[in-house]
Fold:
Amino acid sequence: GRATVQFFVHDPGKRRDQDNSLASLKSCWDGVVEAGVLDDDDWKHLVVFPAEPLYVLSKVERVEIDIVEVA
Structure:
């Protein structure tokens, strides 16, 4: 199916290299596809491809992935 995807990166305010932010999440993309949540991470399967993840200040570092299936 097709989906929209948004990454939320929770971190304690570390400096991030915005140019590499999406590339640094490649292993997350691969895991979502390998787990069978998405058929592939190409434009055919993603309706909205995030330009960069959203950063959230948090004491606990983690990445949340919001995936919404689109008809």
In short: The chain has a mean pLDDT of 82. The longest strand covers residues 2-11. The beta strands are 2-11, 46-48, 54-57, 62-70. Helices lie at 26-34.
